[in-house]
């Protein structure tokens, strides 16, 4: 166990072994971030690690995470990781807090009402059909590329309409992978290093600036046209807060669009790629999912009202998301408090890893085993809600979680109605650290089912 330091009568968090002068725990976090974050549970439920000279209190217990996100949420604000993402996301829901966050959430929430989700699911179905129609039997495709293209096309059609969106969509295809490459590193490295003229910084800053500029241009064209295009961008531009009577500035709309585009594209695309990977490794699970899709959807196309009947398919998705969850989130203590008998001073950074929580053997039976049955109704070891937090919880829970579920189930059912995806031989798929760990590569071979 890590050592416990005493400061008068207060108990400080145990410090994770291996801290070096000036560097802290930066080396193991840089070299093997996934393994290092998983190892922290061995040292306590609230432990301290140092990234350089920046101390972070990491929570390894779901009860403490629940306390921070829900029970004592008013005592915490956004943490450093979110602050460091502000150059990309501006003042969108992803980075803001307090009254401003609540106002923005009120204004955006109607866009994710179930009636709109059904409309979006129809768009997703068309995009999934286009994806699968482009495949050739026996010719390998990169599922990383395919799922990203599908998710981006679905989100872009939801946000924009008509020719005005084409430059923005093209720029997202160009810039988003670059931003993702640097986002995790940028989030944890000292801010003083941001201005170093190293390739990672140059690529990140240039891509973020290009993306913001092109979306600003599209918004200006929408404002100048002054017409409702029946898309999400028009909805955001015309939204009025019921409590204050205010609208969003074009700059605020841009920040929200970037946040929605990122979350609806990269998070969903990465998770969907992992689902196909797991199905390729577990043909018995794939066969059961195909049987359900055949019974509910038939030969397709997938209709929005069919998604709720795909219960086993949803279990497959949830299990893949459990195994391949976001790596790290942070909060900042606004007042002094105690968690698990450990003193947390005001201003302290508090972090938790959904990835590590979801693979904790104390919380999940056979945590590294891909087992969709654990999610079925009535399963004796069905995960409890507060132990499974891929979308967060409380006031900052992902506003688009139902959108993401519809996006992924639509793609899974569309593919399953026509194809099997077989892993390409001779390829070892590794996890690459990122906001959500990415597959190193994922070539798969489409095989017709009919």
TrEMBL record:
Heme binds at residue 398. Its cofactor is heme. InterPro entries: Cyt_P450, Cyt_P450_CS, Cyt_P450_E_grp-IV, Cyt_P450_sf, Cytochrome_P450_Monoox. Keywords: Heme, Iron, Metal-binding, Monooxygenase, Oxidoreductase. One of its GO terms (molecular function) is heme binding. Belongs to the cytochrome P450 family. This is Cytochrome P450. It comes from Streptomyces subrutilus.
């Amino acid at each position: 166990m890590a050592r416990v330091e005493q400061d008068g009568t207060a108990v400080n968090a145990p410090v994770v072994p291996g801290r070096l002068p000036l560097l802290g725990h930066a080396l193991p976090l840089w070299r093997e971030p996934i393994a290092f974050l998983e190892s922290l549970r061995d040292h306590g439920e609230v432990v301290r690690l140092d990234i350089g000279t920046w101390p972070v209190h990491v929570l390894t217990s779901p009860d403490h995470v629940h306390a921070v996100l829900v029970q004592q949420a008013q005592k915490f604000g956004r943490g450093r990781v979110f602050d460091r993402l502000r150059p990309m996301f501006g003042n969108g829901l992803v980075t803001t807090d307090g009254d401003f966050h609540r106002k923005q959430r009120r204004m955006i929430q109607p866009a994710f009402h179930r009636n709109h989700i059904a409309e979006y699911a129809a768009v997703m179905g068309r995009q999934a059909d286009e994806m699968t129609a482009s495949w050739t039997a026996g010719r390998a495709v990169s599922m990383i590329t395919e799922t990203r293209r599908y998710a981006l096309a679905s989100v872009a059609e939801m946000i924009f309409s008509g020719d005005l969106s084409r430059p923005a969509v093209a720029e997202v295809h160009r810039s988003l992978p670059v931003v993702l490459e640097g986002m995790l590193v940028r989030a944890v490295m000292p801010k003083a290093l941001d201005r170093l003229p190293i390739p990672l910084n140059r690529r990140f800053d240039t891509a973020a600036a290009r993306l913001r500029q092109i979306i600003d241009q599209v918004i200006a064209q929408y404002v100048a046209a002054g017409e409702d295009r029946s898309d999400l961008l028009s909805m955001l531009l015309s939204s009025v807060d019921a409590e204050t009577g205010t609208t969003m500035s074009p700059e605020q709309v841009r920040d929200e669009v970037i946040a929605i585009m990122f979350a609806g594209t990269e998070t969903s695309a990465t998770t969907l790629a992992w689902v196909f990977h797991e199905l390729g490794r577990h043909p018995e699970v794939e066969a059961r999912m195909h049987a359900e899709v055949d019974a509910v959807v038939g030969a397709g196309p997938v209709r929005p009202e069919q998604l709720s009947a795909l219960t086993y398919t949803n279990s497959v998705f949830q299990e893949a998301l459990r195994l391949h969850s976001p790596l790290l989130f942070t909060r900042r203590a606004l007042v002094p408090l105690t968690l698990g008998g450990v003193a947390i001073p005001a201003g302290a950074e508090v972090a938790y890893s959904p990835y590590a929580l979801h693979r904790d053997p104390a919380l999940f039976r056979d945590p590294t085993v891909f087992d969709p049955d654990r999610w079925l109704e009535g399963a004796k070891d069905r995960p409890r809600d507060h132990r499974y937090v891929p979308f967060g919880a409380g006031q900052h829970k992902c506003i688009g979680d139902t959108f993401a579920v519809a996006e992924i189930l639509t793609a899974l059912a569309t593919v399953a109605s026509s194809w099997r995806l077989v892993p390409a031989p001779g390829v070892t798929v590794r996890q690459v650290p990122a906001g959500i760990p990415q597959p190193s590569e994922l070539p798969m071979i489409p095989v017709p089912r009919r």
